[in-house]
Amino acid sequence: MTQARPTGLRALLRYIRPYRGRLWQGVALLVVTNVLAKLVPWLLKDAVDALSEGKLSDVMFQTSLVVACALGMGVVRTVSRVRVFNVGRDIEYDLRNDLLRSIHGLGPSFFNRMPTGETMSRAINDLGQVRAMIGFGSLNMVNSVLAYALALTFMLSMSAELTLFALAPYPLLIVAARGVGRAMYSRSRASQEAIGHLSSVVQETLSGTRIVRAFNNQAAQAARFQNANQTALERNMSLVVLRGLMWPLLMGIGSIGTLVVLWKGTSMVRAELLSVGELVAFLAYGEALKWPTMGLGYILAVIQRGRASLQRIEEILNAEPDVMESQNPREPIGEGALSVRGLSFAYGDRRILQDVSFDVPAGASLAIVGRTGSGKSTLASLLPRLLSTPPGCVELDGTDITELRVKPLRKAVAYAQQEPFLFSDTIARNIGYSLDDPYSAASMEQIRAAAEEASVLDEIEDLREGFQTLVGERGVQLSGGQKQRIALARALLNRPRVLVMDDPLSAVDAKTEATILGALDRAGADKTVVIITNRIAAARRADSIVVLDNGRIVERGTHESLSAGHGLYAALARRQQLEEELSAL
Question: What totals of helices (H) and strands (E) does the chain contain, helices first?
Fold first, then answer.
């Protein structure tokens, strides 16, 4: 059973712990800052009393001490803020790295329920709120506690009775702060969720902008954006209104204390229970309490927004990946023999594969053919454990792949997906994606060799900037066949033992199809090849063929034996032959 992970502020302590030394230094400097700040009213008390007694030399001395305290406080205050604020940024850095690692380990079950824009919002907006909570929020919370503690100590030393009068309104402050804090938390979370939804809408609109224009659907997309934007505005304004109400509420409570001190303190001066200097100092300490009281609302807002954002980030950090590393993982060893036994798979209640079994000897090739929706792409994704492959069903060189280390497994079993994804970068970086330094001399040799093996080297070199050509977002500057072969070169770069190709001939013309098939013949000369395809031209080159229908293997054999039969493969072969004859006419 997996041990429950700590959440909330307990989980945050794990990130704070490496920086606790710097935080304690910041706290120590905050103590010094507050001591110097609270000495000023005390020195002012002595100066006022000396002035009332006509001791001008004492007044000058006390004034010089006030100036020295103010200057020292400014220097120490600056250093303390630098120490604490930088800790917040360092923790944000660590959280962002962990967040990315977590995202890389998650599978389709997570991304099916959380859109890309929402994930991006949590990685940007919510992390900023957590940083503010750790840096600004924690600093000012500690600062407020110290301000209260020191001010009350000095006030009690002058008059316990007047201190009680000054604190009379503060129980009301505690009740108000708790109520406002709860409302602030719920509204902060609602606001962040609305921003996440808005980010998702923007991301989808930008990614599908050509579809929007092609269907002349700009008005509908604008209306969708307007609705998301309006919701984000309303929830954010609800939060702003609440924050706006906090300031006058807390200011009013603080002002009541000042009025009470003036009324009671004046009577105590007349009764000679308190000196004029002590009353002045008392009022100064009261004002010193007012500022942290006023700032308490803002600090609560920052902390509550940070808590809400932290909870949203934890939904990613604590998400369970679809593919888990074995407790005692092994390294893949062998030539690339693949064996599938009784493989069944389902998405929820929807059965995709049922009792699929086949063998591919090392260096041999297998074509998997079937109608759309028969489970071919799912089967291709299960072989390198891109999905949660059931244990005991797929073996690589006699070892269950669920017992192998995931990273070496995916290097040994290369997967080229049906729709090749290219990053908005150069061709060299896309082919050398798995290399640490794609532009080094040794890396460029590997990249050129992989491009030549994938039959795309000549076309790359014919481009004006060659391997330095920017492909655009998702490879928009390249043809479909070029993208397919660049993706094939990327898969071949790691010299895999098994090459899994998911429908590499989709959306290409006859000439490009012939080029890709030639590349596959060369690439598979020393590898185990599994090709998912509906094209008979590709399937006939394989050593053996299996035909999937509704998630089950309904036929198996060679091209010649299956074509001579009356099954699904023969019907598909006859139809494609007829299409070729009609195209020739």
Answer: 22, 10
* Residue 549, SS3 per DSSP: strand
Residue ranges with strand state E in 229-273: none
Cross-strand pairs, 345 = 353
502 and 530 Cβ atoms separated by less than 8 Å: no
CATH topology of domain 338-584: Rossmann fold (3.40.50)
Range in 37-51, 92-106, 512-526 the model is least confident about: 512-526
Tell me the pTM: 0.66
Alpha-carbon span 24 to 28, nearest angstrom:
6
- CA–centroid distance for 530 within its chain: 34
Pairing of strands 528-532, 498-502: parallel
User: In the CATH scheme, what is the homologous superfamily, with its name and number, of domain 105-317?
Assistant: ABC transporter type 1, transmembrane domain (1.20.1560.10)
The alpha carbon of residue 123 and the mean position of all alpha carbons in its chain are separated, in whole angstroms, by: 4
Q: Domain spans of the chain?
A: 105-317, 338-584
Distance CA 557, CA 535 (A): 16
Kindly report, residue by residue over 173-218, the tens digit of the pLDDT. 767 766 776 777 778 778 878 887 887 788 777 777 767 776 677 8
Strand pairing category for 399-400 and 394-396: antiparallel
Cα Dmax for the chain: 121
